[in-house]
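Hi R.,

As promised on Friday, here is the backbone we talked about, encoded as structure tokens. Could you run it through your design pipeline when you get a chance and send me back a sequence?
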């Protein structure tokens, strides 16, 4: 097998591997760019609404507090915790199909856990924006590794495409036009926005 033949095969199979990822990133960009098209908002359905008396000092470790709140609700899995004010703790449990948000109001000693009903636009944007390595979970780490592999595959796919284009002198003019058009629009927006 010659090197050009290897490059063509690599480009082909990388494209096939990347197909679902390009579809996902392309489709999920629509709700990001055109949020006004999706006026229906998903409902949050209460899972638990109860009194709760956990004392949370000002300098408390929010990861530990969030883990305790989840355990007290009989829940587990990936989560993020924040403290928008000194008297409120928010815990968010991401899930592609049905995420959960938990609000703990320290003044009212009230804990509210809600699940969001499935909603296509938020499902897609959740796929697009999901991080990978900040949670203590094998599946979250696997998602992060897979996204890293996809990123490397995209770079290789681009490199093999440029290599194949350069091997066809008759198409270099149109290739330069496409390359400069893409790079020029990217630089224009980068500097202007």
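Update: got your reply. Pasting your designed sequence below so it's all in one thread:
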């Amino acid at each position: 097998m010659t090197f050009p033949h290897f490059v063509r095969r690599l480009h082909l199979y990388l494209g096939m591997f990347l197909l679902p990822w390009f579809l996902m990133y392309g489709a999920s960009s629509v709700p990001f760019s055109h949020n006004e098209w999706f006026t229906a908002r998903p409902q949050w359905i209460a899972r638990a609404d109860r009194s709760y008396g956990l004392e949370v000092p000002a300098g408390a470790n929010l990861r530990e507090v969030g883990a305790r709140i989840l355990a007290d609700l009989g829940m587990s899995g990936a989560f993020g915790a924040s403290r928008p004010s000194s008297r409120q703790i928010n815990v968010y449990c991401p899930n592609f199909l049905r995420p959960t948000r938990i609000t703990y109001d320290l003044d009212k000693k009230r804990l509210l856990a809600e699940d969001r009903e499935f909603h296509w636009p938020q499902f897609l944007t959740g796929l697009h924006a999901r991080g990978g390595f900040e949670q203590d979970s094998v599946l979250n780490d696997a998602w992060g590794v897979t996204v890293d592999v996809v990123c490397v595959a995209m770079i290789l796919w681009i490199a093999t495409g440029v290599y194949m284009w350069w091997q066809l002198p008759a198409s270099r003019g149109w290739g330069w036009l496409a390359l400069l058009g893409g790079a020029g629009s990217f630089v224009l927006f980068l500097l202007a926005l």
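One thing I noticed while checking it: The beta strands are 44-51, 80-85, 88-93, 100-105, 110-116.

Thanks again,
M.
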